[in-house]
Design brief:
Length: 328
């Protein structure tokens, strides 16, 4: 029995090692990551730097309905994970625009002051450049904070605000201990594919499936790049942005039709590792935060998903896409 146990343990170790060996080294602008649709770039000059914003601009596959949707990704992701949502929206006549925010995905990784106000302005610039007068704005996770800021700044540009498990439903700086950007940078430098996988398994999904591994391959692959310190520095800077720039006090000021899509098992907290187990237990509870937030936004609707964590469009895609298209 002992030999069988040792053999089993050895097999797990070898499997893990082979998995690690298969991980491709990725550039920090994800040149070797295939996105679901062709990438274009919008040039930007900011703080004396010439940078570029990557985006997908996907035409409807059925008769165009004259409407546009723009999708804002979360902090640990880029436009690559929106494939099924793009397909569903273009199938019902929408033009779909999917930017990688500056500092993320295939976009530039400059050392600048990161702010949701500036990000919102760049996304408005993108829509203006593409001749889009008004758009449905869907934001996931950090993208939900950005989408909220966009709707507050540009209500006339926002046809509808759709929030998929947005972060920022609490003011993290009121209960998460402060760390400097430099301290967070040192933490980011310790990231590995295995630490990413453990975090995603414990925080993002209720049940881990092999098809989620591609998310780890991207977030883990960049850690092997010689340029990873730049990625880590930007990740720390955007962590500070989230911590210091809450939107939670402004939900009541939203003037556009809003729908929240909430995976009820989500327990995401920005800075969760800085909290005790007791503190973690009373924060990041989306089964309550979703309803509380919907109550703050005038006329908002909420659609909840059982047995679902932080990313409904990946964990319960059929239910999410039905709810999404039904809400349009």
């Amino acid at each position: 029995m002992k030999k069988i146990f040792l053999l089993f343990t050895c097999c797990i170790f070898i499997s893990t090692q082979l998995q690690a060996q298969k991980l491709d080294t990725l550039s920090i602008t994800l040149e070797n990551v295939k996105y679901p649709y062709p990438i274009k770039y919008m040039p930007i000059n900011t703080e004396g730097q010439d940078i570029k914003m990557a985006y997908m601009d996907v035409a409807p596959v059925k008769a165009a309905n004259g409407k546009t949707a723009i999708l804002f990704h979360g902090k640990n992701f880029g436009g690559y994970y929106w494939g099924n949502v793009i397909k569903a929206l273009t199938a019902i006549g929408y033009r779909v625009i999917v930017p990688d925010q500056i500092g993320f995905g295939k976009s530039s990784k400059p050392f600048i002051h990161y702010s949701f106000h500036q990000m919102a302005a760049w996304n408005k610039q993108l829509l203006d450049t593409l001749g889009v007068q008004k758009a449905v704005v869907l934001g996931h996770s950090m993208g939900g904070m950005l989408a909220t800021r966009f709707a507050l700044m540009y209500p006339d540009k926002t046809e509808k605000l759709l929030l998929e498990n947005p972060i920022g439903l609490e003011d993290y700086k009121t209960f998460v201990p402060y760390v400097t950007t430099e301290q967070q940078y040192k933490t980011e430098l310790k990231t590995t594919a295995e630490s990413v996988r453990k975090y995603y398994q414990s925080s993002y999904f209720t049940y881990w499936k092999p098809e989620y591994e591609y998310l780890v391959s991207v977030a883990g692959g960049v850690t092997l790049s010689a340029d990873y310190p730049r990625w880590a520095k930007v990740a720390a800077m955007t962590f500070t942005m989230i911590y210091e720039q809450p939107v939670v006090y402004e939900f009541q000021n939203i003037k556009v039709p809003t729908v929240l899509f909430i995976g009820k098992e989500d327990k995401t907290i920005v800075g969760k590792g800085l909290l005790s187990a007791d503190q973690q237990a009373i924060h990041g509870q989306y089964r309550f935060l979703g309803k509380q937030t919907a109550a703050k936004i005038p006329g908002a609707k909420i659609i909840e998903f059982d047995a679902c964590g932080h990313i409904p469009h990946i964990e319960v895609p059929t239910e999410f896409l039905l709810a999404l298209t039904g809400s349009l």
